[in-house]
Amino acid sequence: MTLGGYRVDNEAPHINVTHLSVAYRDQRILKDVSMTVPGGRVLAVIGPSGCGKSTLLRVFNRLVDRVSGVHIKGQVQVGNFEVIGDHVDLVELRQKVGMVFQHPNPFPFSVFDNVAYGPRLQGVKNSNRLRLLVENSLKQASLWDEVRGKLRRPASSLSGGQQQRLCIARALAVSPQVLLMDEPTSALDPLSTAKIEELVLALKGRYTVILVTHNLQQAARVSDFTAFFREGHLVELGPTKEVFTTPRRSATEEFLTGRYE
Amino acid sequence: MTVHQKNLRTERVQHGLFLAAAALLIAVGFAFWGTLGWGTLRFFLQHGLNRTILGLRYHPIQGEFGLLPFIAGSLSVTLIAVVLAYPLALSVAVTATMVLPHRWLPAIRQTVGSLAAIPSVIFGWWGLAMVVPLVRKLGGGTGFSVAAAGIVLAVMIVPTLSLLAIHAAMRVPERWVEGSLALGATPDQTLGRVVLQSIRAPLAEAGIVAVGRALGETMAVQMVIGGQTFFPHNVFAPGATLTSEILNDIGLLPPGAFGHHVLDVMALLLLLAMYGLVLLVERIGGREIG
């Protein structure tokens, strides 16, 4: 199966969350969240600061484990893969579920070595195969035309927006099925933001994308579904158009119209 | 006198003081090189180059000034110390910054810092009690040896080296670590491929500082190395280093004594080695992590 000229190795999986609660020590961050994200779609997660959206994202790839004293209850499934549990293979999970962070975080290596980092971890040594993987990933992240011929330059020589697309390419090089994006444009200028948004639209279908954003217009522009969180609760989840035009809950409406603080 | 004039005068006085201090420092530096260089020159004029640096026998009274035993002693003691201390210090730094809870880090840094401040004579004394008997058991002989000096120095430089490595590791941003983990790297892979990889310049710098420390240490070495002027053919043999031999001979070869200026030669050799290390640090140093 091909999509937009690229071979699709993986059916983008749906994500199921059932009665998920997360607490740091005695502080409850997420409270009994249940939701489903259809495969291959973009879900925007919005809500005021401290509502638990970043924590939710970090549950999906279990990066939340790095916080000491964290307790997770409930179930999360990515396709058929159980995410929560003591014996989950985190390496396998994180190869399935890639992540792009709020601030571009390329490693202090060359452009090439950044993208090749994941494949090399998986034992890819063949230089031709690596080169192909790097090229494909950079093309998918629409960065190839800007960096071809500069692959040996340090990643830090790229602009902020380019660095963020490099991080997306780096995540894609591992062939994930899900892409988590944690406010990926909050540190970028409007032009770079537009490029990332185009990219998210282009990735739709091949990946299930969960996008945490503070930018409501961005949520409206790129997402199929929108989830509104407040104080650890999932207040509302629905098709983006519906949530933005006819929210079912008054709290959602207040937030969308800027009346909530 | 107006306030303005007063200020101007104070400023001129300050300028003068700073200039004098800087000039004094530079003058002392030149005096160092000058004295040692002049002494070295007089030594070579008197005794010739013949078998000095590369000579194997050192017997100043008989006019034999072979310094190779001490050069070998200095190099092997330093090598043993750094090879033993470096992995240890790296482990300390990794454990302190990556493994243990972050709230322990200040206490660890303070403890390690206080170890780094222990005077070297105490390390020598500890070496006499612990290391010399241990080496005696392992390698035979009296235990006073190049190996004992190397081990004592290793223990002595571990705190400094750990502190430098901890500081380097602390400069690795959390977002690189998370980025690596998020790509499916194990913690070990993250450590090797991102953390250590990104701080290799400061780690190399720390290594050079450690070499300098080991090469220049005198007291702790002198207490356990055995102070023999023969070429040390193995690590369990007693020996001497350039520094410990200078200490030895200060009483034996007072100014005016025959061969006194061999001390200048040894000191100049050390100064040149240190200068080389400083140049090396400057080439690596100042480079950001990455």
Would you kindly provide a brief summary of this structure?
With 261 residues, chain A is of the alpha/beta class. Chain A has ten helices and twelve strands.
Task: Kindly describe this structure.
The complex is a heterodimer of chains A (261) and B (290). Chain A is 35% helix and 26% strand. Chain A has 10 helices and 12 strands. Chain A has helices spanning 53-60, 90-96, 111-121, 127-140, 144-147, 160-172, 190-203, 216-222, 240-245, 250-256, and strands at 2-3, 6-7, 15-24, 27-37, 42-46, 70-78, 81-82, 97-100, 178-182, 208-212, 225-230, 233-239. In chain A, the strands form 3 sheets. In chain A, strands 8-9-10-5-11-12 form a 6-stranded mixed sheet, with helices on both faces. In chain A, β1 (2-3) and β2 (6-7) form a beta hairpin. The longest helix of chain A is centred in the middle third of the chain and has 14 residues, at 127-140. With 290 residues, chain B is mostly helical. Chain B has a single domain, classed as MetI-like fold (Orthogonal Bundle), CATH 1.10.3720. Chain B has a two-stranded antiparallel ribbon. In chain B, 36% of the residues are buried. Chains A and B meet through α2, α3 and α6 of A and α6 and α7 of B.
Estimate percent helicity of chain A.
25-40%
Could you give the order of strands across the largest sheet of chain B?
A: 1-2
CATH superfamily of chain A: P-loop containing nucleotide triphosphate hydrolases
Tally of separate domains of chain B: 1
CATH architecture of chain A: 3-Layer(aba) Sandwich
- Number of distinct beta strands of chain A: 12
User: How would you sum up the global shape of chain A?
Assistant: globular
Strand numbers in spatial order across the main sheet of chain A? 8-9-10-5-11-12
* CATH fold-level topology of chain A: Rossmann fold
Strand portion of chain B: under 5%
